[in-house]
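Narrative of accomplishments. A recurring question from our advisory board has been how the design workflow behaves on a single, concrete structure rather than in aggregate. To address it, we present the structure tokens for one chain from the evaluation set, followed by the sequence designed for it. No filtering or post-editing was applied between the two.
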């Protein structure tokens, strides 16, 4: 997945900590792309792409993070700079929190 962002360094710091991902190469100022890879070389990678225009509408795609303890994970992510937009039960009955990363990109945290 690739995430557009106006500040790749801020996005890299947040998502690396949020996901526990590795940085194969440290962030270089001015780089257009920056990659994060899942630990152990797993299949899920996140590419951050520098863009000039700020986000102004809801994301068309977003990450869902499945966790055992929603409250603890939301608190941890808030400590990293995320903010809670809403909490609800989705159609499947899963307790879900919609958060925004420090640049405003929405993602969901879903209790298993």
């Amino acid at each position: 997945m690739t995430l557009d962002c106006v500040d790749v360094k801020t996005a890299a710091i947040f998502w690396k900590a949020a996901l526990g991902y590795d940085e194969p190469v440290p962030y270089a100022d001015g780089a257009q792309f920056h990659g994060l890879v899942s630990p152990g070389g797993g299949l899920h990678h996140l590419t951050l792409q520098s863009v000039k225009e700020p986000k102004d509408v809801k994301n068309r795609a977003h990450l869902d993070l499945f966790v055992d303890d929603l409250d603890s994970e939301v608190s941890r992510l808030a400590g990293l700079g995320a903010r809670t937009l809403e909490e609800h039960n989705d159609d499947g009955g899963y307790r879900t929190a919609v958060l925004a990363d420090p640049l405003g990109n929405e993602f969901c945290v879903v209790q298993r």
